[in-house]
Amino acid sequence: MKKNRILGFCLSQLLLLGTVASASGATAPAAPVSLDGEWELSYWPQPEKAVTDPAALSGIEVKTIPAKVPGNVELDLLAAGLIDDPMIGANVNKLRAWEGYQWCYTRRFDAPKLEPGQRAELWFGGIDCLADVWVNGKHAGSSADMLIERSFDVTDLIEQGGSNTVQVIIRPVVLGAQDHLLGSFSMGNFATEESVYIRKAPHMYGWDIMPRLVSAGLWRGVELRTLNPARFTDVNWVTTHVDTASRNVSLFVDFQTRLPFDQYDKAKVRFTLTRDGKEAYRGEQVLFAHAGRIVVNLEKADLWWPRGYGEPALYEAKGELIGADGQVLDTDVKRIGLRIVQLDLSDIHLPDERGKFCFIVNGEKIFVRGTNWVPLDALHSRDAAQYESAMKLVTDANCNMVRCWGGNVYEDTRFFDLCDENGILVWQDFAMGCSFYPQRADFLDQLREEVTSVVLKLRNHPSLALWAGNNEDDANLFWSRLQPFHLDPNRDQVSRHVIPEVLYEFDPTRPYLPSSPYYSEAVWEKGSLEQYLPENHLWGPRGYYKDKFYTTAPCTFVSEIGYHGCPNRSSIEKMMTKQGVYPWTEGRKWNDEWITKSTRRYEAWGPTMDRNNLMLNQVNILFGSVPDDLDDFVFASQSVQAEAMKYFVEMWRSRKFERTGIIWWNVRDGWPIISDAVVDYYGSKKLAYYFLQNVQKNVCLLINDPVDGAYPLVAVNDTRLPAEGTVTVTDVATGKEVFKGSYNVGPNGRQCVSNLPVMKGQGMLQIRYDANGESCSNHFLYGEPPYKLKEYKGWLDKTKMYTNKDK
């Protein structure tokens, strides 16, 4: 009898194994269960010992309000009437009182019944920040990095086919920062001391472009995912060779799977490449191991090009995992572009040997016309809704690169999809800036996990052109006020070891820049002076935009440069209370709302007028005085910014390829603020946006300041085809024709069309030309400041070039 029971048990297990094997071959991938939407949010001041277990909440007085996910706690507090809108006036300062609170998100959900062999995974797109996750009162895991996705295996924690409860308890980062010992040099420029050890967007602690808004929340989506026993775990497409002339391309796809052993030697993978409905490649491989590589060679392939240089061609790259019975067990679909990106970089710029910093795509040198991409919102759960509109600003301005600044979060997949589609190269900083980060093993291990996660998520995007270690961390060591004892940045463990080691393993074909700007060993040995940097951030005195600081800057590539400009009146009236709009100053004292919008990290600092005073100084230089009328002041400030930004781009473009690119600061604000952005938080364009839009055309004619007693009239062509047309230059005030002729500039080239006589006095020249069937126009402001504001406006109106509809 006992023997029969044993035999029966063994037979039942064999049948169960057969069911598992069959299920692994027949179960289609299940759609994830979204947990976005309505949650509950409980909150309380953190006690001496932080609460990490929901069971401890019974002994604490907590309050509970409705919440939405994706979300930030401030949005839920605002919806509940507990705080005033932090976007308006000085209200953001009141959020300081909430920085010591803990938060608990709670949601009930139904879990599906799992098939044999399946696993349940709770996935979070972003948890901000120090958190413990609980399912049905059992600990699922912890998270201490806002910036990356998190997954927890909850197979043994959920009630399959029944109701479940998930809770996420979040601790305040400002108190969590006290648990970490800082090094002697961790006192940053903008980044605060409390920010360096905790992986959270640096700008949230306060920056010169963003408020102090130390948020918390589940800021990206949440899903319950069902994982089949047979599935892809990674698919990576890599282009290894491109012949631009023949369009012959070599690439490979590396894949990894999780596979039941009974599928070995029987299951297979199939990969296809399709473009415009036509299959360009199909290949299969039997799985003798869980991972492999398939090499692909294509003839007359369509290449991916950055904006202006050709079509950003995309292929659908599909992978199928096929079981022994022919059933498709899993599918991986990506859009890839066939291109090779290189960065021709030298370690130092010397007087007799210009430093190199040039992007090369498919063997073609690219002149970069770019913008810095800063946070889309101080509350990041609102980022995703703004991707399309913000990207349209970039494309309408005809940028071919965005630099994702290191004080931000890592943008989500949709952002990179849009860059792929529009031919926008992406320079991606890792999320660090203006500080010296810990060098100890625990921090380095956390950074290694973050970098790996981000690289694996983004590396298949053709738009991603460069990884940069950080924003201004090398420079920050030079600013540390410990000269001559400042630290050698080339000994930094984060940017010189951890990040490049991850990239060497997981993304070895994409360029890497240790820091922006990069202080190489050669620069360090020369005393870390800016004159030796091939790539640099040019901020300088922020006075007259034709200061020698700008006009004689030696760097080959500038990746930050900007100028302050007042927002339109309609936006000022949205971002401030009625009482705060005007007067903006009383005597020499700015009102508190204008100070907050300047920005100011702590209210207790009192007046911090320097950022707003930039506008006053710059207006005074160009126009001789500062208007008292708000509308006149807005126009004057925006005019100065517009002329400055235009001048910077033209100065760099006219020296192509002696100079190789300019990434100006910046396209759009992430908070209602008075700033260098050319479009404000509400999407209202300043005059500078229209000026930049005009001088960033693929083919552009421009006039530079006098050289040897003449104005150079220059044509630049950022396409791979020759460009030619006619050009006329007239004096705006008199209508007198100064030049009439033609231009003929070669592919990706530059031509000095003519040297024009220097005009006497002050005025404006208008350049009318045709390019690729389009009638275009540009202008040049001649003479020395100060100009009369009314006269300048009259010249601008006569050109009929710029109509700022966003007043």
Automatic annotation (TrEMBL):
Which stretches make up the Glycoside hydrolase family 2 immunoglobulin-like beta-sandwich domain? 237-339
Origin organism is Alistipes hominis
Show the catalytic activity: Hydrolysis of terminal, non-reducing beta-D-mannose residues in beta-D-mannosides
> Which residue intervals define the domain Glycoside hydrolase family 2 catalytic in the entry?
359-479
Q: What class of enzyme is it?
A: hydrolase
Give the EC number.
3.2.1.25
Q: Name one GO molecular function term.
A: hydrolase activity
Q: Where is the Beta-mannosidase-like galactose-binding domain?
A: 64-220
Which Gene3D superfamilies has this protein been placed in? Galactose-binding domain-like, Glycosidases, Immunoglobulins
Q: What is this protein called?
A: beta-mannosidase
Its domain of life reads Bacteria
The family this protein is said to belong to: Belongs to the glycosyl hydrolase 2 family.
Signal sequence residues: 1-25
This protein's UniProt keywords: Glycosidase, Hydrolase, Signal
